[in-house]
Amino acid sequence: MILAEMTWKEVEALSRDTIVVIPTGSIEQHGPFLPTATDTLIATAVTAVVEKQVSDQVMVTPTIWLGASGHHLPFAGTLSASVTGYVETLTSTIQSLAKHRFHRFLIINGHGGNNEPNGITLRQIKEQNPNLTLGHRGYYQFAEQVIAETLEGSIKGIQHACEAEVSLMLHLYPEKVRKDLIRDDGLRPVTPVQSLVKGWDEISEEGSFGFATLGTAEKGKRIFDACVEGIVNEIEAIHAGVVYRGIF
Amino acid sequence: MILAEMTWKEVEALSRDTIVVIPTGSIEQHGPFLPTATDTLIATAVTAVVEKQVSDQVMVTPTIWLGASGHHLPFAGTLSASVTGYVETLTSTIQSLAKHRFHRFLIINGHGGNNEPNGITLRQIKEQNPNLTLGHRGYYQFAEQVIAETLEGSIKGIQHACEAEVSLMLHLYPEKVRKDLIRDDGLRPVTPVQSLVKGWDEISEEGSFGFATLGTAEKGKRIFDACVEGIVNEIEAIHAGVVYRGIF
Amino acid sequence: MILAEMTWKEVEALSRDTIVVIPTGSIEQHGPFLPTATDTLIATAVTAVVEKQVSDQVMVTPTIWLGASGHHLPFAGTLSASVTGYVETLTSTIQSLAKHRFHRFLIINGHGGNNEPNGITLRQIKEQNPNLTLGHRGYYQFAEQVIAETLEGSIKGIQHACEAEVSLMLHLYPEKVRKDLIRDDGLRPVTPVQSLVKGWDEISEEGSFGFATLGTAEKGKRIFDACVEGIVNEIEAIHAGVVYRGIF
Amino acid sequence: MILAEMTWKEVEALSRDTIVVIPTGSIEQHGPFLPTATDTLIATAVTAVVEKQVSDQVMVTPTIWLGASGHHLPFAGTLSASVTGYVETLTSTIQSLAKHRFHRFLIINGHGGNNEPNGITLRQIKEQNPNLTLGHRGYYQFAEQVIAETLEGSIKGIQHACEAEVSLMLHLYPEKVRKDLIRDDGLRPVTPVQSLVKGWDEISEEGSFGFATLGTAEKGKRIFDACVEGIVNEIEAIHAGVVYRGIF
Amino acid sequence: MILAEMTWKEVEALSRDTIVVIPTGSIEQHGPFLPTATDTLIATAVTAVVEKQVSDQVMVTPTIWLGASGHHLPFAGTLSASVTGYVETLTSTIQSLAKHRFHRFLIINGHGGNNEPNGITLRQIKEQNPNLTLGHRGYYQFAEQVIAETLEGSIKGIQHACEAEVSLMLHLYPEKVRKDLIRDDGLRPVTPVQSLVKGWDEISEEGSFGFATLGTAEKGKRIFDACVEGIVNEIEAIHAGVVYRGIF
Amino acid sequence: MILAEMTWKEVEALSRDTIVVIPTGSIEQHGPFLPTATDTLIATAVTAVVEKQVSDQVMVTPTIWLGASGHHLPFAGTLSASVTGYVETLTSTIQSLAKHRFHRFLIINGHGGNNEPNGITLRQIKEQNPNLTLGHRGYYQFAEQVIAETLEGSIKGIQHACEAEVSLMLHLYPEKVRKDLIRDDGLRPVTPVQSLVKGWDEISEEGSFGFATLGTAEKGKRIFDACVEGIVNEIEAIHAGVVYRGIF
Prior knowledge:
The structure is a homohexamer. Chain A is built from seven helices and five strands. The first copy, chain A, is 37% helix and 9% strand.
């Protein structure tokens, strides 16, 4: 079910075991060849297909498109939420529906920079409302193996305006990709230093990071389908009342 | 121009006299016959047509769909931002682009409950950044005379899931209107008391307020076109550097 | 009843149906001829006369004199609350008395810039405490018709250090008006642009706005009496348990 | 000079070496015999007389009457600011005038519970604005020796609705004192425990604390005059540019 | 008992009448001869000895070492909490254990600058949780008479990197004192001005204040033992259920 | 160098290329056999040995022991910071030293729950201060391969009161381990659901998680030494001015 399309009486009539699915994205620079809404578009598209497959188990909210993108602000057109604002927006969305007695919430995230604020927000809500079921994950984390197998470049996970994202956009919205401007970016490394937080202008010449030139619509379809399948499995398990319980 | 569709280099190339247009809406109950996204849909649609007419003078951001809707929370499916969250989201959107040296911002609002927080937010930003040009207004405030002339019911302004909003939705998205469920709502008055803030469950039986049954697609078109025209005029005046200067 | 004059036992003895009346004003520039406390003085004076007429139905708090006046800060002597501070002050005042089981609160506002924060504050409190009766309004909004009929200038509503405010001050505190310095202010308009928030230095030469030179004590008395009458009617209706219920 | 009485041009014309004096009080229970505004009334009265004596050296703001009075909330009619709200109100008052280039601020406090938030507020402002001269003190701290000599009861400092406060009110506002209801309060001690913060209902039967029955107008006059003299001396020293410089 | 050393089951097994003792200190400049941790070291040491004497009546938390030290920031190596951060840290510490049903909390403070935020924090918590027993005090306030009798310089109370603190450090951690660099500091006074808040660079040449050269280990021992004794007495009284009840 | 041990003049004399190292830990339940301070103890011990090896390149602050531990609050003795408080404490620590012109900061974290707030805090500071070098990482992340090779249980990474933590504590503080109470914990899994945030009482019987019974001091030494080596390498690289620059 799609919240934005429903009347309040239709929402009222839903089972409260319905899982509220909240897509999160960003409006931020994606190099000279992908639009600023890339993360929002992909998270929204993945969630829309998921919704069609398990429509009776979910209610999807609109996509939170203002992400935590401070590291991309050096590039024009990037919008970034403050931490306070991001946490408040997500919390209000969940708390509003919790007042209507929904108790299961799953965030499908399209922007890596949202992972930390998503986690912090849910942990805060969980501490105050231990009976809620709360989850979050990047859409790409549901298909890490397929992504690693699909990508040809030496980087085997999703980066930013990279082989994976270009592939997904060529699959979903080929008309939005400036194909003639696709380029690889990210300078040669000289050190294994791993702990630093960086502004994106410190690690990329023109805003992208990875082997964007290797992207194809076929790879995009394979990744997309795998993500959808992973999320559908997760939703069916949560809907069935299954929770993570151990280590063996 | 549409920010979400652009790459950062395309944004970078824009004139900084471009007016950033930010639509604001809500996800809130609109009676048993209109979808929760009604305000968001109308504000987005109005802005989209405006953008086509003055494309070289504006850059439109995505619509802020999480409104200040606490008074509608008694009805399921309503989402409401905290004041803090709403102000932060709007401020971050503006401040992000101000870092990129845009200096003109205009909010086109689709939800009456956002007017106060829109005003407060802009006043705060203006106080700290007196050189910015900042404006906000309900889309319906640009065509109040046409609205008054168009409506047949005794209420001559826009209310909530009313003659005007039903008309606009029948014009824009007739398939989203549950036509068989349209009803008037709002009880008979017994007093001129005017100062009270009310929960929407205190003034409506099923969430709407006004003569919804009088709505038609024709009225919707007339109102819609007048709003677009009014906003286009406002944008052209602001773009030309005209500011309000006096009382005569 | 006047809270500041009472002992706690006298407050304790009051009926909890008593309406708590909270005047709000400002300390802000009012041109070269009215004192900074003008809004505070008028709101306090109106409320004081109201209190005498319906003493057994109300308990008046001291006037909140630190208003939301950021748009007047370019002129010396203006004090302005932050939004956070204003909301907190008003909320604390109401919540303190709500702890003592008072449940009806009415703000009588003397400064237009407080309307938005007054509204936001009450909406927040109402959302959390739906059983409270909460209202706010400018004192001048209770007599709009009389004001329009009384004013001779082409502006038929209250502005700032204008015909209406000068008239009220000449009626209430003639010794505080620098009569020889009264002047009209506000430049000739060149556009109908209506959406912009403005610093007061952008729309006035010396801080006032309107036909101040047309002010007289007689007009002030007529306006003042009408405001008092309007507020007394509102209080009596609220005290009788009447609430706004509909649209016909 | 009295800010509330001045026009902005008169403020503008002041020397920026003028000391801004901010009285702080409370609206809180003062036993069955003193009005809730007692602290506000005394702080305001002391400051008013001081202003007359050193009018050319000071500009007095209105009294901040919403104090930090949470410990008195168990008694009806007490209003209490949140810490956030109190700090914001005081900070905004100072920062507004600092924008107009005033650089000396002195708080004259009438409510002991405000001392900690006054201190914290000024320390925060000082840290960010090291060139400002910022001071705060209870009015009674300027005359501790005279107070100790004047009081006949075994408590030699000011408490709450006590010998000293009753005396001051009998001197300043005898008509506001319910003389027939004056009583001593505060139970017999059984321990030297000194570190605890207490609700006022834990240490007083009816809200007062001390030997109120010993209060007289004569004692009030002696204390009042000594406080005024102490504050005038402080102001003259600050105005002369004297600052605390050492330990000998 | 020492919380950091215990397992959760050992904490769970404690009587809930156990007093939670929270030492608070600072990391701030203490002149050229004492380490930045001086306040933290002394508060921790005092509390540790107290714990040994009344082990079955207390549970000691780690020392809050980030104090409110903005006035010392002009000197390198000083760390200072924001007021918000300090209040939150202390509140979270108390609220966490209140969730486990502990209800008695006593702060032993080693840094004068923490007194105001300690007070404000406890007052806020007390207002919301009137059944909690909450106390705070400087360790030195439990032995003011002994301190006054012990000090030879003309200042009879504790200051900063002064005779008393040097003595305590020579007693507790002589190896941490740069004995050859000890010096008196604080300029000659020229005025009785008492109300001002000051940056420490305004009242000290090199960061200390007082007759540091008079410090000895013997004085330190006498003061230390007296503080321990005073705190032990306080704890035993609170543990016995004694509370402050009056004025005679 | 160790900040707590230094005088301000010694800090002042340091090269500003010195890396400020901030250990972060927690006070939270670690099952029935490890003390609540486990994370704090390990992070502090690792950092202390690192400091000895690269003393001239670092200045270590005290360990932030109040972690983000809300998920452990169901077990007694757990303390948890609010997100606001945690972020403020860390931000104040960094900003205080940034005022003294230090520009390199590295957090060595001992508690997994701090990773998200550490990341968010540094990203916020970086956005406002792009010239600062800011890093954070769990101590265990510097030796993931050695940890995986060392652990015998089927879990190859660090968990909570697990094989790795027991080993480290047996190596560092064997006297603090309740050896007779060591037990494995964490129930048998029935699902691959991975997205949920959980209270620790939902996934553990008595608070630990992993094969604690497999812990040995020898494993602890191997892990400890590898962590120290990894951190030393990171510090030397950062100190040499090396930053992460690319993807090949």
